[in-house]
Amino acid sequence: MPGKGEASLIACRDEQRADRILNALTIDVEDYYHVEAFKDVIQASSWASRQSRVETNTRRLLDLLAEQETVATFFVLGWVAERHPVLVREIAQSGHEVACHGYSHNLVYRQTPKVFREETRRAKLVLEAQSQRRVRGYRAASWSITAKSRWALDVLTDLGFEYDSSIFPIRHDLYGEPGGERRLHRRTSRTGELVELPPATLSVAGWNVPVGGGGYFRLLPYGVTRRALRWINRYERQPFVFYLHPWEIDPDQPRIKGSWKSRLRHYVNLHRVEPRLKRLLQEFRFTRVDDLLVGLDVDAGFGVAPPVRVVHT
């Protein structure tokens, strides 16, 4: 057993290691009326006539990130990109990575492979034209690459994507891969290979508990989120993937009359997100996904890089 002084040195060393680890900060650029929670009361045909708040909210995030000297990856919905091309250029010109969030925000497992390919290709081409950058990453609407839509990985590699962040290793009524790989890892498909970046979870009594952003960031007390993420960095010595949406910093957005569950999921603690995010950016180190991958030895695993496990699909 180490003595008190030695234990303090070990704790200090672990803290320093955690402070050196870079994590991935990701933003899913969509508007409040795109979310799956309100699909039963909002028709896609009404989107164009609704008050759009995505430009204002995304620019608020860009200002906050500039203030904190932090860069991130913005997974932009193709539908948004076509209507707000200047916003996509601003994201890229501000030093952030532009990645793809699909086109229509339809869940992958509700699409045919043909429709998914057409929509994803359309979104990728639009984003590359607007950002003047290669789009390397993809994230499905509502984490909807699951066991019944694993074929989507074949399409992604065929379209030239290098990484994906669509598979949430938890149990959920809409998505998830319960018991799935928590760490950064490679997945092979019939058409190639992708690096998979699951959002942050903590393993508790054999269950993967989501701690990496979105509604979980709003629902859990900040101290719980901080301790969970610090545990991943300090004791697991892994980077984590954190995510949020521009509408989550907008407590004044129009209220939609959905079910109680949908309203809870969408509106809980919106007023807390911006100050919590600012604190998070001050307490952890973040970067873009593409830069994070450059800094990691995805095959060897070591120090701050996760040991990669190849998962065949």
Word description of this protein:
- This protein has helices spanning 4-20, 54-67, 78-83, 85-93, 113-131, 152-158, 214-219, 222-234, 260-267, 270-283, 289-295, and strands at 22-29, 73-76, 97-100, 137-138, 163-164, 185-188, 193-196, 201-204, 207-210, 241-244, 285-287, 310-312.
- Residues 7-14 and 300-313 have low confidence and may be disordered.
- It is built from 11 helices and 12 strands.
- Helix content is 38%, strand content 15%.
- Strands 1, 2, 3, 10 and 11 form a 5-stranded parallel beta sheet that branches. A 5-stranded mixed beta sheet has the order 4-5-7-6-12, covered by helices on one side.
- It is α/β, with parallel strands linked by helices.
- It is globular and about 45 Å long.
- The longest helix has 19 residues, at 113-131.
Strand and helix map with partners:
Elements: H1 4-20, E1 22-29, H2 54-67, E2 73-76, H3 78-83, H4 85-93, E3 97-100, H5 113-131, E4 137-138, H6 152-158, E5 163-164, E6 185-188, E7 193-196, E8 201-204, E9 207-210, H7 214-219, H8 222-234, E10 241-244, H9 260-267, H10 270-283, E11 285-287, H11 289-295, E12 310-312
Parallel strand pairs: 1-2, 1-10, 1-11, 2-3, 4-5, 5-7, 6-12
Antiparallel strand pairs: 6-7, 8-9
